[in-house]
Amino acid sequence: MFEGSNIKRIGILAAFAVIVIGLSVFIAMRQGLPAYGASYVAGEAYSGASHAPFVESARDTLPDYGPIPLESAPLDPAFVLLYENADMAFYYREDRNVFAIRDKRIDYIWKTGLDAPFPSEVEDFARGLSDSELDEMSIYRLVRMSPPFIAMANSAITIEFFNDANALIMRSSMPQAGIASTTLAGTDAPNRFIMTTFFYEIDLTINMHITFEGTRIVYDIPNEEITGTGRRVLSAIHITPFLGATGGAIEHYDTGRRFFDPDSQEALPMIPGYVFVPDGSGALIRFNYNYMSFSEYRGVVYGPDYGQSQFFQMDASNHVPLQNPTMPVFGISHGNGWAGFVAYATQGEEYMEIVAMPHQNTTYFNFAYPRFVYNRIYLHVYDRRGSGFFTRPRYISDFRLSMVYEFLADVDGELACYVGMAQAYRAHLLETGQLQMGGSNPGIRVDFLMSDISPNIVSHTQIALTTISQTQDILEELSALGVKNITTNLLGWQRDGITGGRPGNVSFRNNIGSRSDFSGLADFARQNDIRLALIQDYFVINRVQMSYLNNAAIHLSGQHITTDITDIVPNAAPVTEQAFARPERSVEWLSRDLRALDFMDYHMITGITSRVISDHTGQGITVQESRALLEEAFEAASQSHGLFLHRANQFLFRFADAFMDVPVFSSQHIIQTDTVPFLQMVLHGTMDLFSPYANFSFYTERDILRMIDYNVNPSFIITHNPSHLLQHTNSAHFFTTEYGRYRDLIVEVSAQVQGILSQVAGYEWVHRQVYASGVVINSYENSGGHVRQIIINYTDYDVYVNGITVPAVSAIVL
Questions:
Q1: Contact indicator for 791, 812 with CB cutoff of 8 Å
Q2: pLDDT per residue as tens digits for the range 599-629
Q3: Pairing of the two strands 352-357 and 444-449
């Protein structure tokens, strides 16, 4: 029986759904118009036969209506020139702790803060004027900006610290009597300065080194230069949180009644542009006036450190998981590509969060900034029942914080949009050796699910879905059907399958294949130009595999870090709880496996590729030490095997021959207005990129177009036997995998995607333009300067580009 309140709630949701669908159709009708434009030459095309109507959403990228030239207001005389070069001039206003950056290439001024007075300053100024003086000027103040927020909006540094009740307090480096004092001192180099801020309230001193080089500002805070007794209560540091902020609202001073009239409030002009965040493939948060409060975007770079999370126990749910940034980078564009910057961490990124605050959140401004976390509250447990109290660790994290802000401008072929941000960041990674050019080979990934365990009366039974001989038969058939450049990964290949197979303990079962059978398949793969790897997770473990003692990571509370997965697995599943492996064990198991699998040329690694955690077993290790262990282990592994990495974090990019399950969407937070292939543009040409499995709702015609648009190769996971055999296993989520159902689709998708992408193989991806709603033009250039373009038409109507027809739901190469 439904209670009345539930019926009412269902009715409200149904009505809301009708409204949303109606609005979507209306938007589609308004935006569904053919596009006309520049001249191109028609080329080869593929086109699907049937399709659903195109409705633009946040999964797409909005059309480009820029760049829009912008003018800057004159710089206040209070700003003093610090340093100047051919392209940039850097100024500083001491009383407000604001830097101004003039981009001389386009005569545009950025400020690291709002450069705004406190409300009390404005009131005192107004009260000091005569009636005649008031009549001659307009006086206003910012709305919803309390003194602490004004200080934050101006300051180069804002800190968070814990008070005696473990509540977070925010203070900023803008000079304020009794709160903070800041001095800027020069050094022996004319482009280097040291900004020293003393926070009176907690006796904390922070020295931030500032370097102006070319079109960049580099901020550096060495760990040893955070001093004072207040260090122990420091929680986080924000760097220039209001750089590039736009929006705001003001209220005017009533000269007759001599007070600020709340009825006179008005919104300030919103600069056209957006914040870029590395959520999934990449997302834009366009500057908008919002009419309700929205939550901010908060991305935890490299994922949360479960060793220092608030609780040692977690519950898994069926909600769509949020995607953690794999790169410590974000950016802001003004004028839709007229001016912009890309900001990235070069040290301390393991402790970094990327925060983007939308208009109508706490303030009326849109702004974004990096937040570096030094300490957090956790539940300290003191008995077996889980009783405890909230406290903070005895010591804060020790790390060096370094941020680079690189300013972009629409000049001399440089792009100041998300494409330019991707190009600048890619150049940084290549220059520093964090990426290596390796080419890209358009192909297809066909993975095989071989086995998993199902419970029986005594223990469990291994369910065989695909044997080695069946795997070879399928690969031979696909090759005969014209499928080329196959990459194959085997999942559940070892004794006890996916769930029970123990990392670091290579063991085969004859009902799947013996060691010699696997070695024979590896020989077959080499002879047929198939890249073959075995998949192993070195992060998630369970009690069927092993004891947690000395294997599972320990939380700050002294307990094993565990996740209850009861709600996302079948009732009879053999495992309902998971733990996370100690980093030292993970790298030990990886080394063992590679020694035992010396007959394999490739190995696919998952788990530790997208997670880095601290472990508090014994003396413990920090996330930085954990990262160092991983880098050392992957360096050694790459000497003996080619490595396929699942959703790898940036510090592992240089070891990857292929990136598996590269995200093609964002987390789709409501404030995210666009999805963009930022990650793909950064990685293009350095490794092969493979999409999520097409079996599971990623095989429609528009999904195939997205693979072409994002330059990623298609992926499938298949089994020889029906997938319903997995219904009582932890792999029940692989609900549709039978090869017989997917053979024709594999052949078709492979031909469609490779047919397009092979024509730009070896080319550099130099630009992406959304020409009209649902119409994308990707430009590629080879070393000889020859340019090719791929036009993707997601819409359900033919579009015309200066007389050239691009059929509905198709892509053509020019």
A1: yes
A2: 999 999 999 999 999 999 999 999 999 999 9
A3: unpaired
Write 98-101 long-range contacts (CB < 8 A, 24+): 98/154, 98/156, 99/156, 99/217, 99/240, 100/75, 101/217, 101/407
Q: Do 686 and 670 meet the contact criterion of CB atoms below 8 Å apart?
A: no
Residue 4 has pLDDT above 50, yes or no: no
Strand partners, 564: 315, 577
Give this prediction's pTM: 0.92
Residue 28's pLDDT is what? 37
d(CA 370, CA 586): 30
Query: Cα separation of 53 and 174, whole Å?
Result: 53
Helix axes 701-710, 739-757, angle to 10 degrees: 40
> Which residue in this structure is represented by tokens 């006890």?
496
CA proximity to 276, closest of 683, 611, 672, 577: 672
What are the DSSP calls for 251-320, one per residue?
Answer: EEEETTTTEE-GGG-EEPPPPSEEEEE-STT-EEEE----SS--PPEEEETT---GGGSS-SEEE--SSP
700: β partners: none
Q: Is 564 left (phi over 0), alpha (psi -120 to 50) or beta?
A: beta
Stated as kind and residue range, the H or E segment containing 20 is: helix 4-31
User: CA-CA distance, 417 to 332, in Å (whole number)?
Assistant: 8
The amino acid at residue 516 is: S
Q: What percent of the residues of the chain are helix, what percent strand, and what percent coil, each to the nearest 5?
A: 25, 30, 45
* Residue at 703: amino acid letter: D
pLDDT tens per residue across span 680-734: 999 999 999 999 999 987 788 999 999 999 999 999 999 999 999 999 999 999 9
Q: Is the pLDDT of residue 360 over 60?
A: yes
**How much is the average pLDDT of 740-751?**
96
Residue 353 structure tokens: 């969060």
Rounded Cα–Cα distance for residues 727 and 748 (Å): 29
- The C-alpha atoms of residue 273 and residue 337 are separated, in whole angstroms, by 7
Q: What is the mean pLDDT of residues 516-532?
A: 97
Per residue in 505-523, pLDDT tens?
999 999 999 999 999 999 9
H or E segment and range at residue 563: strand 562-564
Give the SS3 label for residue 751: helix
CA-only gyration radius of the chain, Å: 28
- Is the pLDDT at 654 greater than 80? The verdict is yes
Amino acid identity of 467?
T
